[in-house]
Amino acid sequence: MNLYLLINTLYDETQLLPLQVKDKSPAELQITAEQLLREAKERELEIVPPPPRQKISDPEELQEYRLKKRRAFEDSIRKNRGNISNWIKYAKWEEEQQEIRRARSVYERALDVDHRNITLWLKYAEMEMRGRQVNHSRNVWDRAVTILPRANQFWYKYTYMEEMLKNIAGCRQVGANTFIHRPHAV
Predict the structure, then answer these.
(1) How many contiguous H segments (helices) and E segments (strands) does the chain have?
(2) So where are the chain's domains?
(3) Cross-referenced Pfam families, in alphabetical order (predicted)?
(4) What is the CATH architecture of 84-181?
């Protein structure tokens, strides 16, 4: 079967089987594999490249850019409040902008939407730890283990944080609370 017939074989939509080809003679115009590859390569060049990254030169331009991004994030959240990945992307972007208070606000709003999402709590506490906000991080861990006491990751990471801070008493306290909240987890 030549390439032309292979490309132009029609399928019956109800049976998904090839229909009978009426004309089995070779096509007048034969296409080689090299021609197909060359045409595909030419079409790749027709694709418009993405716009260059924006260069920001002054504080006013930076503020304008941030406002535009915040509006885009808020619009995506407004369209689908339940999509936690949008909330996390927004909070991470705010953290990248060194706007920790805004990122904290985004996480708190996201927790109002879904306070049972383990990933959300983990990302929130990890952001506080990256920012060296120990007390904020402890507060987040305390709230997380109170709301979701059966989530093992919270207990492990909370204990690990206290251990990294060389707070042995705090580490023991978290361990003791594990057994209070989860008596069967031995």
Answers:
(1) 9, 0
(2) 3-45, 84-181
(3) HAT_PRP39_C
(4) Alpha Horseshoe (1.25)
